[in-house]
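Suppose you are handed a protein chain with no further information: no name, no annotation, nothing but its sequence. What can you learn? This example shows the usual starting point.
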Amino acid sequence: MKNVSTGLIFAALWASASAATKFGLMSAQPFTIALTRFSIAAVLMLVYTHLIRRNRLPLKHEWKPLMIYGFLNITLYLGCYVLAMKQVSAGIGSLSVAIGPLLISVVSAFWLKRALKQKEIISLFLGLAGVAIATYPLLVRSFATVPGLLILAVSMFSYSVATVYYSNIDWTLERLTINAWQIALGGLFLMPVTLFFYHSGDNRFDQRFWFSVAWLVVPVSIAAVNLWLYLVKIDTVRASVWLFLCPIFGFVYAYFLLHEPITIYTFIGTALVIAGQLLVQNQQSQKQEIAEAG
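A reasonable first move is to predict its three-dimensional structure. Written in structure tokens, the prediction is:
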């Protein structure tokens, strides 16, 4: 029951990132929002983990995996994500998160140097078809652009690689410490890009900006990411199940908060994405049960 409530809270918080980002983009440039978010989150978490909880600092051999994970999961994934949200609707941003388990399955296959199973190929096709169908009316009505969708695809691929990488590292650091340093390092890598594209006239540090950043820092970067790492460490396969709910929460937020349209294409596309997820989840669960039985 504890894991169920944890998963529901994670999905609700994680899906809210798209809407919160859209609000922030009304006031500031994408990378300005991202770097401000990461800087505040990193300082808060580093102070908490090292000064309050007295957790140890990373050892010399632990810095490399932290930097790789931070680059993939923060700089590339969330950097591209906030950039894409400038050109893509919040609903599609949430739906893209649901593609994660399908891409994770594909990335895992290449990571382990094994051939893709038929179910994995079908599930990926269903997921991509679902996103295409849900996106079609939004493209027509200018709620999304092709470049934005391509940037979003890069973002989700990086997220999948980061998740597989994280699950294959034998971490001895506490989860909170890992999260704190991956955010700090990821933000550090993003800083030169942010400074290069920064234009003061495009940034207004008003109430809307700070509310957006505060939401992205506390409920998303701190709470949701720690819940996700907790779920992944317990069971990587079952953790992905909670991503099923992200499109549902996301489209609800987008509809009520941003007045984005929900059409029959939205329902059909989301259903195909979830069908693809269920297919790959069923295969992974069966493999896990066989391994546990053996």
